[in-house]
Design brief:
single chain; mainly beta; seven-stranded mixed sheet; four-stranded antiparallel sheet; 11 strands; globular
Length: 126
């Protein structure tokens, strides 16, 4: 059974930074593509960033490009989301997700991911 656990969320002022972490257990982390998604109240879950199994390929949504960076450490079964220059509109619950198809990456449709964490709240005050 694959389990994903996010951490690192919190309350931050606009312009500040947070680093989210997601630890994966129970599966073969190094073969998964990983993604970060977010969901604000009353809105659909949206794609934030993804990274391929090796960490050599990444993709970010236009709304966070240049501000957020996704990375991973296969030795620690972890994926990270460094968030800089945060804006109030970044406020949401952030989820990490795993895609067990090693041959693809950059998937932006949430239904394509096999495993999900429970999410961590990020609140950006103005």
């Amino acid at each position: 059974q694959v389990h994903l656990l996010e951490s690192g969320g919190g309350l931050v002022q606009a312009g500040g930074s947070l680093r989210l972490s997601c630890v994966v257990s129970g599966g073969t982390f190094s073969s998964y593509s990983m993604g970060w998604f977010r969901q604000a109240p009353g809105k659909e879950r949206e794609f934030v960033a993804s990274i391929n199994w090796s960490g050599g390929l990444t993709l970010s949504a236009d709304s966070v490009k240049g501000r957020f960076t996704i990375s991973r450490d296969n030795a620690k079964n972890s994926v990270f989301l460094q968030m800089n220059s945060l804006k109030p509109e970044d406020t949401a619950v952030y989820y990490c997700a795993a895609d067990s198809d090693r041959l693809r990456w950059g998937i932006q449709r949430s239904r394509e991911y096999d495993y999900w964490g429970q999410g961590t709240q990020v609140t950006v005050s103005s």
